[in-house]
Design a protein that fits this description.
175 residues; mainly beta
Length: 175
């Protein structure tokens, strides 16, 4: 039998430029800001350990979710970059010592309509599901359509059932 565990989003307490959360009984605070030199957005995570995420896009908006499972000693931080359309999401492992380890970039977005808006390339965060087995971790998407490589020449819209990602030995792979 395969040992399988689902990751759930942990609750985030959002204020204007700050988000607080508890991860495995440790209190963290995430502050949104902009770097002085490049004027690119950043998120500074403070808690048991400190970590700063710097966006590669100058005027992007950042949002994040943390996925955790109480039976496992690691979690995932997923940060979405939004620049008029989503530019995809970066995935970090938060290990048992609360160190943030970059795993890779998900070059995808949800191709959907939010409210009465027209179809657009939106954040994948509300639709992301993460499942862990002893062999690999699966990243799948609960939305009918995805945009792959948003804003790039190779951009394409596909059914979400035709794409998932796996993580094996800290290597993220598109399947």
């Amino acid at each position: 039998s395969i040992f399988s565990q689902a990751f759930e989003k942990i609750p985030l307490e959002k204020k204007t430029r700050e988000v607080s959360f508890v991860l495995k009984k440790e209190q963290f605070k995430a502050s949104f800001g902009v770097t002085n030199e490049s004027r690119r957005p950043k998120i500074i995570f403070n808690g048991k350990t400190n970590f700063t995420y710097h966006s590669i896009y100058q005027d992007s908006q950042l949002e994040f979710e943390i996925f955790s499972n109480p039976k496992l000693d690691f979690s995932y931080l997923v940060i979405n970059n939004y620049l008029e359309i989503t530019m995809g999401a970066d995935i970090y492992l938060i290990d048992k010592n609360y160190q943030f380890v970059y795993l890779g970039h998900l070059p995808i977005g949800a191709y959907n309509r939010i409210g009465n808006e027209k179809m657009n390339y939106n954040s994948i965060l509300p639709y992301l599901s993460i499942f862990y087995t002893k062999e690999k971790t699966y990243f799948s998407f609960e939305v009918p359509f995805l945009v792959v490589n948003p804003g790039e020449i190779t951009e394409q819209i596909i059914e979400s059932s035709k794409l998932h990602y796996t993580l094996i030995d800290k290597t993220l792979k598109q399947n």
